[in-house]
Structure to design on (272 residues):
């Protein structure tokens, strides 16, 4: 199993397994970790790209968190910074990954947008291209089992999310995640998607017994899809029944709008 920010006590992650997602469940529940998770992790995301000399030693920045791609063994952040691993305090090999989110200490600047870092942790990011609802024929893609988008931002030519979903304890069933572009007449400057989740029948009942909460980072590449300088990205998803005591209650549909701009590297905390 790859290193997944043990120091920050993050909730469970799941990883890509062929075209599905293999769930990896940790013992701690999401609720027990989220306060620490939000305080440590998304505070760093919001300040990403601001490298300031604020320590008494020569380290430029502590606990920097950033997402990006590994190219020819070198991590390149979505902001275009090249990070060379000078020291490492976690296990695992970053150069075996493709897209990752890392936490590191930025040690020194060695060139234009190039830095030496101390790598403290990293996690694989599930990456999958959006699909067009008019061209997909596989019915399993369109199932909308409950999930929650906890955070969403755009950077590096991707729509990035941290999503949460109920996981049956002890199950090895893979879940299917897809970002489906909605059909119908498009509104100029607006791109509308629905985040689909297929749990293949493993959906918790009202009491939630036998289930825990899993979470993961996902990135959907959209380079070339958005042609405008500015656009609205609309995301819909099913978060489940609001009244879990009522067997006839309908699932709640949620939506968010993200104001995207070309070259947008902002990591914005939009939700919850």
């Amino acid at each position: 199993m790859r290193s997944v920010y043990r120091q920050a006590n993050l909730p469970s992650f799941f990883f890509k397994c062929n075209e599905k997602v293999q769930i990896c469940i940790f013992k701690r529940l999401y609720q027990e970790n989220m306060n620490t998770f939000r305080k440590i992790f998304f505070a760093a995301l919001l300040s990403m790209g601001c490298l300031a000399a604020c320590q008494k030693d020569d380290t430029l920045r502590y606990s920097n968190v950033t997402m990006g791609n590994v190219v020819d063994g070198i991590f390149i952040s979505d902001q275009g910074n090249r990070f060379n691993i000078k020291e490492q305090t976690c296990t695992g090999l970053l150069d075996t990954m493709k897209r990752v989110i890392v936490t590191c200490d930025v040690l020194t600047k060695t060139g234009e947008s190039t830095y030496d870092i101390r790598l403290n942790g990293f996690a694989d990011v599930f990456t999958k291209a959006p699909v067009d609802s008019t061209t997909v024929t596989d019915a399993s893609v369109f199932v909308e089992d409950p999930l929650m988008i906890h955070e969403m931002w755009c950077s590096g030519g991707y729509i990035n999310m941290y999503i949460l979903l109920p996981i049956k304890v002890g199950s090895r069933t893979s879940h299917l995640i897809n970002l489906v572009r909605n059909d119908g007449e498009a509104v100029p400057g607006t791109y509308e998607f629905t985040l689909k989740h297929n749990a293949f029948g493993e959906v918790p009942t009202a009491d939630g017994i036998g289930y825990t909460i899993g979470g993961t980072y996902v990135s959907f590449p959209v380079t070339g899809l958005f042609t405008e300088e500015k656009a609205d990205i609309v995301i819909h998803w099913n978060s489940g029944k609001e009244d879990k005591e009522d067997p006839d209650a309908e699932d709640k549909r949620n939506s968010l709008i993200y104001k995207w701009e070309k070259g947008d590297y902002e990591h914005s905390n939009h939700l919850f």
Q: What stands out?
A: Residues 1-46+128-272 form a domain with the Immunoglobulin-like fold (CATH 2.60.40.2370). The first helix runs from residue 30 to 46. The CA atoms of residues 168 and 255 lie 26 Å apart.
